[in-house]
Amino acid sequence: QLRLVESGGGLVQPGGSLRLSCAASGTGLDYYAIGWFRQAPGKEREGVACIRNVDDSTYYGNSMKGRFTISRDKTTKTVYLQMSGLEPADTGVYYCTARADICIETVAIGLLATDFRSWGQGTQVTVSS
User: Fold this and answer.
1) Which residues, including other chains, have CB under 8 Å from residue 54's CB and lie 6 or more apart?
2) Mean pLDDT over all residues of the chain?
3) What is the rounded CA–CA span in Å between residue 20 and residue 31?
4) Which residues of 77-95 are buried (b: 16+ CB within 10 A; e: fewer)?
5) Nearest to 50 by CA among 22, 70, 25, 29
6) Residues contacting 66, CB < 8 A, separation 6+
7) Torsion sign (Cα): 106, 107, 113, 118
8) 72 DSSP β-pair partners
9) At 17, is the pLDDT very low, low, confident or very high (cuts 50, 70, 90)?
10) Which of 94, 101, 102, 100 is nearest to 117 (CA)?
11) Residue 64 pLDDT exceeds 90
12) Less crowded by CB within 10 Å, the N or C end of the chain?
């Protein structure tokens, strides 16, 4: 059973930066893809970024490209989401999640929450002045 625990959320001013962490535990982690999704009140869960453990390949949602960076530390089994240039529209609960092997089925479809099976409890990010 895979367990994911997020941390690092908080309140940040527009234009600021924040780094989220996802601590993973369980068996077979090397064969998982770890993703970040976010959900704003009244909106659907949106794919943010994903990293494939087997080769460190990454995928980003369109509105995050150039502002967010996903990375991982193999030693500590932690996946990070470095966020910069934050905007009020980035406010929401950020979830860490995992699926077997790949991040996306096709580029056209992108990150789909329904493709991911294990979810953390989420961490709140609020961007406001």
Assistant:
1) 30, 31, 101
2) 93
3) 22
4) bbbbbebeebeeebbbbbb
5) 70
6) none
7) positive
8) 79
9) very high
10) 100
11) no
12) N
Tokens of 89: 């529209």
The pair of three-digit structure tokens given for residue 90, joined into one six-digit string: 């980035």
Instruction: With a cut of 80, say whether residue 51 has pLDDT above it.
Output: yes
pLDDT over 70 percentage in the chain: 100
Beta carbons of 59 and 50 less than 8 angstroms apart? yes
Q: How far is CA 103 from the centre of its chain?
A: 11
Nearest residue to 91 (alpha-carbon basis) of 65, 60, 125, 123:
125
Phi, psi angle pair for 67, to nearest 5°? -110, -30
Q: Which two tokens stand for residue 4?
A: 């994911």
